[in-house]
Amino acid sequence: AARDAVLPPAADGDAFGRLALVLHAWEQYDLAARAYEDAHRRAPREATWWALAGLLATRTGQHGRAADLYARAVALAPVSLLRLLLAEALLESGRLDEAHRAYTAVVD
Asked: How far apart are CA 108 and CA 104, in angstroms?
């Protein structure tokens, strides 16, 4: 059903995001990353797909990429959980000054 939803003319950002989520859950990480990118292009203001792409990047050890994705999610939805995920990704990627600022933003 998720695959069928991305076939024209139904292909919108949410459809690609849902497909990415299914692929992510089934550990089809390369395909999931491409589907998240399609979701970003079609729904650039949807924080959910940026955050989930960040989780995928974290899962695959791409902490710098995860930080960039979480930063996009935080810009759209500045909630504490996303700020914490951003801080963790920054720390894991060695961006210590940015991580410090991000952790501080979580508790302020």
From this structure: 6
| CB-CB contact of 70 with 50 (8 Å) | yes
8: number of CA atoms within 13 Å, CB side? 0
- CB–CB of 20/57 below 8 Å? no
CB 56 within 8 A of CB 28: no
pLDDT digits (tens, 9 = 90+) for 49-96: 999 999 999 999 999 999 999 999 999 999 999 999 999 999 999 999
Model confidence, pTM = 0.90
Distances (CA, A) of 36 to 11, 44, 63, 91: 13, 11, 17, 24
Contact 61, 93 (CB under 8 A): no
CB atoms within 10 A of CB 89: 27
d(CA 33, CA 24): 8
Question: Is the distance from CB of 36 to CB of 46 less than 8 angstroms?
Answer: no
